[in-house]
Amino acid sequence: MLHPKLGRVMNLVYYNCLFFALMGTTLRLRSYGKIIRLEKVAWSYLIYSAFIGVGLFVSIYLILPEALVDGYIKYNIVLQWNFFAMVTLRVLGVLSCYGTMWLKRHEIIQLYKDSLIYWKRFRNIMKSTVNRKELKELQLSLARIMWRQVMVLYVGFMFSSVVQFQLLSVISQHTLLALSARLTHFLQFIAIKMGFYALLVLLDHQFKVIHLALNALHEDKSGKNWKTLRSIANMHMETIQLARRIFSLFDIANATVFINMFMTTLNIFYHAVQFSNKTIKSDGWGLIFGNGLIVCNICGSMMLINMLDDVISSCNNTGQQLKQFSDLPKVSKKLQRELDAFSVQIKGNYLTYKICGLVELDKPAGLRFFESVLSHVIILMQFDLRRQQQPNKIQV
């Protein structure tokens, strides 16, 4: 029972992921009947998935440009090493992404099936317990957030396309093919980020629905809806398990996404330094689109980290919602028993997200992310200054 506006943006994300073969199987979407059915995995889609994965992997060869000899990075060893690092990360990104899709395809399809069962099981709670107006407002707010992320990603793609085109030293068939390959990889990277963001939006929706259900149950002063509270507790537990399965299944793929985000941000900022000190020549339009690219990159990265933090906070703050039941004048023994069981369940099931089980991601981690980027840019700037001063010393 998704709102049509939220459903439309989810359909857009689905078709982007489907085009780049980021789905374990195709889904039959029926917007009028509000039904999502799993189709049998067709051999044609598996062949298409292999074609896309191999095509992206082979196209990396086209990214190896003549620019190493003739382009703007010819005399800058930092840009050269940065280029090779980005190419290496793209290879790892393609391998991890499509490796996950192929090696864990059956687990991903089972995740889809379990998600549909989960949705059918608990939608009655939303219908009977949650206020429809509040549910509508929640879904509209999530739809706006999702649309903003989509717009930021595609506007950033437009700015990046213009900037990369202006950086071409010579417009030839090879350079245009290399540019097309880079932009194709950028679109695939956008589809991955959109897919992960959409999963986070759906998880955030479910945790906030639990909050709305608890608020509605608290407003019912009878204190006898212990069965409803038990269903909400089951919903909360299964949502946590669903979130952990999603984080575990796509752990390697998401790790490469965040590493690529770090290197891309570092690359953009360092190029901005090169533009500012006239090492790379550019006109006014280049500066405008370059600044736009910086803004879109920062906004897109922070929106992704904020949504991840919102999901974790929505899950772990459920205990605060239970505290409001302490002000009820009279509570039945069965309801008190369910409240105690729900509290114990929450205390033993905190949700966290760690990249490969090592680096925990939350809002403070996002601030450390940009702090680290700026520190690396400053180090690279000092390296540039030292490299530029060396010829003068030789002449003296």
UniProtKB/TrEMBL annotation:
It is a multi-pass membrane protein. Keywords: Cell membrane, Membrane, Receptor, Transducer, Transmembrane, Transmembrane helix. It comes from the Eukaryota. The chain crosses the membrane at residues 12-29, 41-63, 83-103, 151-171, 183-203, 252-273, 285-305. Its main location: membrane. Pfam families: 7tm_7. It is found in: Cell membrane. Gustatory receptor which mediates acceptance or avoidance behavior, depending on its substrates. Belongs to the insect chemoreceptor superfamily. Gustatory receptor (GR) family. This is Gustatory receptor.
